[in-house]
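call fold(seq) -> tokens
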Amino acid sequence: MPTDEHAGAPPRPSTPRIPPLPEAEWDDQTRELLAQTGGPAAGATHIFTTLVRHPGLFRRWLPFGGKLLAGKLPARDRELLVLRTGWNCRSDYEWAQHVRIARRAGLTDEEIERVKQGPDAAGWSADDALLLRAADELHRDACLSDATWEALAHRYDERQMIEVPMLVGHYHMVAFALNSLGVQVEDDVAAATGVSR
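ret:
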């Protein structure tokens, strides 16, 4: 996803540095862990079959990520934060998977495309722009500004306020792993989301 904003950044691996674990190599533990992800029907097979190569870490990470996906933030708000984080981190995999989830959460294709332009793009409501600004501040400064914190605190309760930086931080971590390991977007997901492979 090259843009002027990402000019000069090094390219992402075009092939896996650590490939997904082939089904022929799955053992009982692998099958048990992958069963918790919803299986191939969930669509995000490459991330899981790559990370399951570290079963102890996978076992602990999966419930945490799942909790954030079913947390206290409204799904649409969560997906704006995740999409902007995926875009900021230049993670094609994270972006493509969350385009699919964002559509289910009620974001239109036009809004999803506008996420790339950031909080100052024309057409955002004040609430949506605030979420994108929060994701940008966390990406850039590793902290929400006082003004952004106060504006979010008018919308969200204490648990939701805790989730905002935890969510963005988690998806930074996931993007770092996806990018560095060279996890590639699945063909069907690429076709459904327009992400080139």
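The domain at 75-192 is CATH 1.20.1290.10 (AhpD-like).
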